[in-house]
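Budget justification note: compute hours in this period were largely spent on complex prediction jobs such as the one shown. Inputs:
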Amino acid sequence: MSSAKRHGKARQGRRGLHLVLVALAATIAALVAASSTRADAQDPSGADLYAQNCAGCHQAGGVGIEGTFPPLASNPAVADPAYVGGVITNGKSGPLEVLGVQYDSVMAPVAGLSADQVEAISEYVSGLAGGDETTTSTTVATEAPTGGDADRGRDLFIGAKRTSEGTSACASCHTAGDIGNLGGSSLGPDLTDVYAKLGGEAGLSAWLTNPPAPTMTPIFGDHPLTEAEIADLVAYLAEAPNDDEPSDQIDWLLLIGFIGAVVLFAGMAVAWRGMRRTYVETLRSAR
Amino acid sequence: MSGNDLLFAVVPYVVLALAIIVTIVRFRQAQFTVSSLSSQLLESKKLYWGSISFHWGLSLVLVGHLLALLVPSGFELWNGAPLRLYLLEFTGVALGLWAAAGLIVLVIRRSTEPRVRRVTTPMDTVVMAIIGVQIFTGLWTAIAHRWGSFWGTEVMVPYVRSLLRFSPEPGFIDPLPFMVKVHVLAFFAFLAVFPFTRLVHIITLPLQYLTRPWQKVVSVRDEPPAEYVTRDKNARGVS
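Corresponding output:
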């Protein structure tokens, strides 16, 4: 290649680099612009947001479910909007006494809310604090659930039967009781004892009506479970603790995977034996 | 904009733009460098054990990821029976371990074979490190946060599709475990270095290999059998 041509190539290379830099800058600018306008959606009121995000567990008007989900109405702790905002953003777990009743439940941070929306809900909820003294908590049914079919619930849980909205099976993120030999998924919490933890049918049904976990909201927000599906799942989860729990799940997965890898290497040794030999070795063995 | 938004809604487009534009520029201006620069002539035995397992293991796992992206509902139907789910997951873990073992062989080869070491560039090390992180976090996810082929259809697929629709929804990634996030970020790192490294050879999928007659690479450096050596052994290297 002549020197002039080489210089030409170098110039072209620099032009190419400039092109890349310009394209990158444009991409970044477009994205920053896009992401800053993304949040400017319409603004539903605090009451609407409460109904969408909170009422599943804390019930309409914030009456709660006694022993499972604490009431917000007449609850002096929620009079401070900053406190409410903190709980919405960070979640709250562990023992808690509200209006003389003990609670020990888990509230995950509520996902998908902007700072303005958290503020709107906090204002609405703090308004409930001083509220209506006559409101009474929904009471919990602690006996076995009625109406649902545990076998149908199990099919829904493991995905043998699809939900009407086509959402993925519970087992894709959770396990409960004895599902197959290796259990369901371990991404989300083990739901074996969830029926008791959430205070039985009422609490679990409320949770499933509008699952408030950050991983579940994007999935079930627009594709909720039907009442019949919830009843079946509740019936199944009520029975789950009676199943034998599978043991040593991780070891089995690793062990069988390891055996599979060894088999693949053995296959390499057999199937491509000739490939490993050098030409000289082939000549030598042919004599 | 939160750190999560930056990493999972902006970075993917930056690295994708880099990968596409720089690859095109490199292909137009330095086409002969779009290659993996084979080192088979320098060392072939360790290469066989490392390269075949690494490339086949990784390619099949990659096909699995792409299939899940294309037909997530097919995966959900398949996984609806626990036994089928376990079969799929065992296969994935086996292929991942196969690829991991292959990568370890390749790393040992690069660091212990003097001739291969001589042609190893710093970017080769970077590529091996990124793919090493990718395989490790993938296996970690498969084992500790099982069953990825199942929850992936509801979490990862909508996220990747949101990126492809140009309306990124990083909220899907936000609540996921650390190792899963690293797995995703390692792929972005992979895309970012793609056009600057030997990784570009991926676009040169040699489809003609499927139909052309096989060829054997012959090196004259191999020690020839004694009966083919005609001259006096003591004279070797002198003349």
